C-alpha cells in the first residue's frame, strides 16, 4: 500500500488552480532554502497520510516514496505538499500576484508624481513581468487591502499628466478589462458624475499625442510612413492564407523597394536636382512626344535629366562679373562653385557604397534571424502557446491572426513529418541518372538562349543606330524578355521528372537554374555594350545608347511579367479548373523572385548612364506589388505541400548581394576605370576615363593652398595606392574568422548550459524525492510517538506465564487449547 503526503489548503489557495511542475526549465539559486522552509512549515502544520489509487507505485524497501512519483504512463505524480512547494518557487511567483502588481505601480506612480521635473517618456522602463523579489513589496492577502491599494493607485494616476498616465497604464502587466476599468476611473473627475464616461475629444487627443511627439519627433514621421506603406495589412493576409513561402516573395519585393529609394535619394539631391536647377543650353528643337518614348526611352526623353548625355561638364553656380578675353569669367566672392563631373562621379560611388553597406547589413541580420545560435526545438510549443496576441479585439484582426497561426502550424508539422525513406541501390542509381539528364537538358536550354542573344546582338550591331527606326530598337529587349519568359516554363516541365521529396529543395533547384540563365544573358549584354557598342558608336554618345537600352530592358521585363501574370496564372487557372479539374495553380516562387533580382540588376547596371532609372524601378515595383497580390488572391492557391520558408529571405538577399550587386559593381568599375567616355556628351567628355575627374580635382587642390594639402595626400596614398585595399580586405577576413570562432564558442557554451539545465532538473527531482522521504519519516515518527503514548508497553515473552491466565487451576485442557505462546499480549483492566 502506497501513501502520499497531503496538506490542507489554506484559504488563499482555494479557487486558484494548482500549477503544473512539468514546465520547469530553470532552477533558482534559493531553491534549497525554499525546500527547507516549506518542509518545516509542512511538518508544523501536520501531514496526513492518504492511500493512492491503483495506478500509483509502492514504497521502496527503504521506506521512501521514490516509486510513488511515477504515474501510470511514466509521468511524475506529485502530492499536494510538493505542488505547494513548487508553487512558491521564485520562478513561479513572478508576475502572478495581482495585489503585488497594483502595489508596485502605485509606488512607481508616487515616485513619478513627486519628481520636480517630468522625465522623458523614454526613461520609463516597460516591465512586462515584474519580479516580486526585486521590489520590496508586501503581498496583500485580503481583498480589502488590495482595494485600498487600487484606490490609492487610481488617485495617484489622476495626478499625472494624460500622456504619462497612458504610458503607465500600457506598461502594467494586467488584463485588458482591468486596464479599461483603471482608465475609466482615472478619467472620471473628482466630483461625482453619473452616466457613461465621455470619450476624449479630438483636440484632447491631439494634445495627448503632442507630448510623446515633442520628446521623439521621429515617431510621428515613422507612423505616417508606416500608414502609407502598401503592405501594412496585405502582408499579414498573404502570410495567413498562403504561408511563409509565398510571403517571402512580397517581403523581398518590399526590401528591393527600400534599396531603390535609398539609391535614388542621393542622386536626386546632388545630381539630378542640381542639373535641373541649372540646365545647359539646348542643342536644338526638342522632338514632339509620340508616346513611343515610354517603351523605347528615346525621342523626347533623350535630352533630359534621364540620361548621362544631358549633364554638363562645367562648374555650376559660378556667376561671372563680366566676360573677359578668351571667354573666361571671374567668379564673385559670394559664388559657390559646384563641380558637376566630380559630383556625378562621387554621388554614384557614394550611392553604391551606401547600398553595399545596407545590403551587407541586411544579409547579416537575415542570417542572424534565420540561423540562430542554438536549436529551434521549441518552435512548436512557442507557436501553440505564445503566438496569440491577446490585445486583438476586432473580428477581422482576430480571424487574420487565427489563419496565420494555423498556417504556421501546418508548415511546422509538414517539416516535422517530412521523412526521406532509404532507397535501394537501384533506386539511387536511377535517381542519379534522372537528375543528370535533367540538368544536362537545362544547361542545354541555357546555352541555346545565350547563343540566341549573342547572335541577335551581333545582328543589331551591323546596322547603324541612326539608320534604324525607333521601334526597331525594341528588338533585342523583346528577344531577351521572350527567352526569360519561356525558359523557366521549360525548367518547370523538366523538374516534374525529378520528383523532389522536399518542396524547399525543389524551389532552390529552380532558383539555381533561372539564376544561371539570367546571369549568363546579362554577361553577354554587358560584353555587347562595353565591348562592341563603344567601338561602333565612336562619333555618337554611346552612354545615352546604353542607358536607353537598359531602360528598354526594364520596361520590357515589366511587360513580359504582366503577360506571364495574365496567361501563366489567369488563363492557366481557367484551363485547370474548367478542363483539367485540378483546381487553382500554385504561385511560382522561384520564377517571380528571379524576375525581381533580374530587374534590380538592370537598375544597378544602368544607374551610371541613367540616374533616374531607380525611379522607374520604384514605380515598377509598386505596380508589381498590387498586380501580383491581386493575381495571387484570385488565381492561385496555397501550396499543396506546406513547407516552412525559414531561410528563404536569407537566400534571396544573398543572391541579390553576390551575383547581382557584385556583378553590377564590377561592370561599373570597369566602365569608370577602363572605358574612354564619349567626346560629344556627358560630364566626362574631355577626359580619357571617368576616373580622371578625381585626379583633376586633386591637382586643383594642390594649387589651392596649404590648407587643403591633406586631401591630395589622402587621395594619393589611400585611393590610388593598392596597399590600403589589401589591408582592409585582410582585416575584413580576420573579422569574419573571429566572428565564426565566436559563434562556435557560443554554440559550445549553449550546449554546456543546456546540459547544466538538464542536470539541475535531475537535481530538482532528487530533492523532491528527498523531501518526500523526510516528510514521511517525520510523520511516521510522530505517529509512533502518539501510539506509544496511548498504548501501554507490552510484556516480554520470557516473563510471561501462561498458567497464570488459564481458565482455572487444574485445568490442563484449557492450557493445551491456548496453542503456541504469543509474543505480546495487551493487559485488560478488571471490571
TrEMBL record:
InterPro entries cross-referenced by the UniProt entry: TMC (IPR038900), TMC_dom (IPR012496)
Keyword Nucleus: no
Family named by the database record: Belongs to the TMC family.
Lipid bilayer topology: Multi-pass membrane protein
Species of provenance: Phyllostomus discolor (pale spear-nosed bat)
Gene responsible for this protein: TMC6
Protein name: Transmembrane channel-like protein
Keywords of this entry: Membrane, Transmembrane, Transmembrane helix
Any single GO CC term annotated in Swiss-Prot or TrEMBL for this entry: plasma membrane
Keyword Transmembrane helix listed: yes
Location in the cell: Membrane
Residue stretches of biased makeup (Basic and acidic residues): 25-44
Top-rank taxon: Eukaryota
Transmembrane stretches, start-end: 246-272, 342-362, 432-456, 471-491, 503-530, 611-627, 648-673, 723-740
An example Gene Ontology molecular-function term: mechanosensitive monoatomic ion channel activity
Region of interest (Disordered), residue spans: 1-61, 181-200, 796-831
Domain TMC: 541-646
Amino acid at each position: 500500500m502506497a501513501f502520499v503526503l497531503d496538506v490542507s489548503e489554506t484559504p488563499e489557495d482555494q479557487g486558484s488552480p494548482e500549477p503544473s511542475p512539468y514546465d520547469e526549465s530553470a532552477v533558482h539559486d534559493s531553491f534549497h532554502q525554499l525546500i527547507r522552509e516549506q518542509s518545516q512549515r509542512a511538518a508544523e502544520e501536520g501531514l496526513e497520510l492518504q492511500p493512492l489509487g491503483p495506478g500509483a507505485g509502492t514504497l521502496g524497501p527503504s521506506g521512501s516514496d521514490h516509486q510513488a512519483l511515477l504515474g501510470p504512463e511514466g509521468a511524475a505524480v506529485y502530492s499536494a505538499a510538493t505542488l505547494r512547494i513548487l508553487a512558491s518557487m521564485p520562478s513561479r511567483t513572478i508576475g502572478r500576484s495581482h495585489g503585488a502588481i497594483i502595489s508596485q505601480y502605485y509606488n512607481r506612480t508616487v515616485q513619478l508624481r513627486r519628481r520636480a521635473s517630468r522625465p522623458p517618456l523614454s526613461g520609463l522602463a516597460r516591465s512586462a513581468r515584474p519580479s516580486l523579489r526585486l521590489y520590496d513589496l508586501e503581498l496583500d492577502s485580503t481583498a480589502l487591502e488590495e482595494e485600498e491599494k487600487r484606490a490609492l493607485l487610481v488617485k495617484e494616476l489622476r495626478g499625472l499628466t494624460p500622456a504619462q498616465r497612458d504610458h503607465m497604464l500600457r506598461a502594467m502587466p494586467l488584463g485588458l478589462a482591468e486596464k479599461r476599468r483603471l482608465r475609466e476611473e482615472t478619467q472620471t473627475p473628482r466630483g461625482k458624475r453619473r452616466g457613461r464616461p465621455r470619450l476624449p475629444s479630438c483636440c484632447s487627443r491631439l494634445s495627448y499625442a503632442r507630448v510623446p511627439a515633442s520628446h521623439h519627433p521621429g515617431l510621428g514621421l515613422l507612423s505616417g510612413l508606416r500608414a502609407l506603406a502598401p503592405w501594412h495589412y496585405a502582408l499579414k493576409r498573404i502570410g495567413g492564407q498562403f504561408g511563409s513561402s509565398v510571403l517571402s516573395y512580397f517581403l523581398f519585393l518590399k526590401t528591393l523597394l527600400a534599396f531603390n529609394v535609398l539609391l535614388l535619394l542621393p542622386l536626386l539631391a546632388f545630381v539630378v536636382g542640381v542639373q535641373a536647377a541649372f540646365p545647359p543650353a539646348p542643342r536644338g528643337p526638342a522632338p514632339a512626344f509620340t508616346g513611343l518614348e515610354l517603351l523605347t526611352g528615346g525621342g523626347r526623353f533623350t535630352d533630359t535629366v534621364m540620361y548621362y548625355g544631358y549633364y554638363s561638364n562645367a562648374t555650376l553656380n559660378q556667376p561671372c562679373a563680366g566676360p573677359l578675353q578668351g571667354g573666361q569669367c571671374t567668379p564673385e566672392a559670394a559664388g559657390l562653385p559646384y563641380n558637376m563631373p566630380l559630383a556625378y562621379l562621387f554621388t554614384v560611388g557614394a550611392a553604391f557604397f551606401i547600398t553595399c553597406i545596407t545590403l551587407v547589413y541586411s544579409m547579416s541580420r537575415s542570417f542572424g534571424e534565420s540561423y540562430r545560435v542554438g536549436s529551434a526545438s521549441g518552435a512548436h510549443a512557442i507557436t501553440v502557446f505564445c503566438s496569440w496576441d491577446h490585445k486583438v479585439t476586432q473580428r477581422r484582426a482576430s480571424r487574420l491572426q487565427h489563419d496565420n497561426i494555423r498556417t504556421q502550424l501546418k508548415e511546422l508539422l509538414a517539416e516535422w513529418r517530412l521523412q526521406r525513406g532509404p532507397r535501394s541501390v537501384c533506386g539511387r542509381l536511377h535517381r542519379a541518372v534522372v537528375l543528370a539528364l535533367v540538368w544536362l537538358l537545362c544547361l542545354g536550354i541555357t546555352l541555346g538562349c545565350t547563343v540566341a542573344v549573342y547572335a541577335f546582338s551581333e545582328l543589331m550591331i551591323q546596322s547603324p543606330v541612326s539608320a534604324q527606326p525607333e521601334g526597331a530598337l525594341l528588338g533585342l529587349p523583346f528577344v531577351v524578355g521572350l527567352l526569360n519568359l519561356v525558359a523557366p516554363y521549360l525548367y518547370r516541365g523538366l523538374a516534374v521528372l525529378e520528383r523532389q521529396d522536399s518542396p524547399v529543395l525543389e524551389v532552390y533547384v529552380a532558383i539555381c537554374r533561372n539564376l544561371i540563365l539570367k546571369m549568363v544573358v546579362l554577361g553577354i549584354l554587358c560584353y555587347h555594350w562595353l565591348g562592341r557598342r563603344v567601338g561602333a558608336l565612336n562619333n555618337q554618345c554611346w552612354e545615352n545608347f546604353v542607358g536607353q537600352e537598359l531602360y528598354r530592358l526594364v520596361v520590357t521585363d515589366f511587360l513580359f511579367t504582366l503577360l506571364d501574370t495574365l496567361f501563366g496564372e489567369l488563363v492557366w487557372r481557367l484551363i485547370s479548373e474548367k478542363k483539367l479539374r485540378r483546381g487553382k495553380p500554385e504561385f511560382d516562387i522561384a520564377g517571380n523572385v528571379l524576375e525581381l533580382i533580374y530587374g534590380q540588376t538592370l537598375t544597378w547596371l544602368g544607374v551610371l548612364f541613367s540616374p533616374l532609372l531607380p525611379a522607374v524601378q520604384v514605380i515598377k515595383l509598386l505596380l508589381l506589388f498590387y498586380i501580383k497580390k491581386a493575381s495571387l488572391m484570385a488565381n492561385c492557391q496555397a501550396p499543396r505541400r506546406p513547407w516552412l520558408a525559414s531561410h528563404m529571405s536569407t537566400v534571396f538577399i544573398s543572391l541579390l548581394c553576390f551575383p547581382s550587386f557584385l556583378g553590377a559593381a564590377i561592370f561599373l568599375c570597369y566602365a569608370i576605370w577602363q572605358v574612354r567616355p564619349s567626346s560629344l556628351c556627358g560630364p566626362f567628355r574631355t577626359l580619357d576615363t571617368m576616373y580622371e575627374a578625381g585626379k583633376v580635382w586633386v591637382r586643383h587642390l594642390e594649387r589651392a593652398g596649404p590648407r587643403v594639402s591633406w586631401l591630395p595626400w589622402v587621395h594619393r596614398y589611400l585611393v590610388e595606392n593598392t596597399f590600403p585595399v589589401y589591408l582592409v580586405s585582410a582585416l575584413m577576413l580576420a573579422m569574419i574568422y573571429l566572428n565564426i570562432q565566436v559563434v562556435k564558442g557560443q554554440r559550445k557554451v549553449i550546449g554546456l548550459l543546456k546540459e547544466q539545465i538538464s542536470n539541475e532538473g535531475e537535481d530538482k527531482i532528487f530533492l523532491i524525492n528527498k523531501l518526500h522521504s523526510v516528510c514521511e519519516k517525520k510523520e511516521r515518527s510522530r505517529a509512533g510517538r502518539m501510539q506509544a503514548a496511548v498504548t501501554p508497553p507490552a510484556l516480554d515473552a520470557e516473563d510471561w506465564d501462561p498458567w497464570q491466565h488459564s481458565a482455572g487451576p487444574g485445568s490442563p485442557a484449557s492450557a493445551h487449547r491456548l496453542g503456541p505462546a504469543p509474543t505480546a499480549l495487551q493487559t485488560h483492566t478488571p471490571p
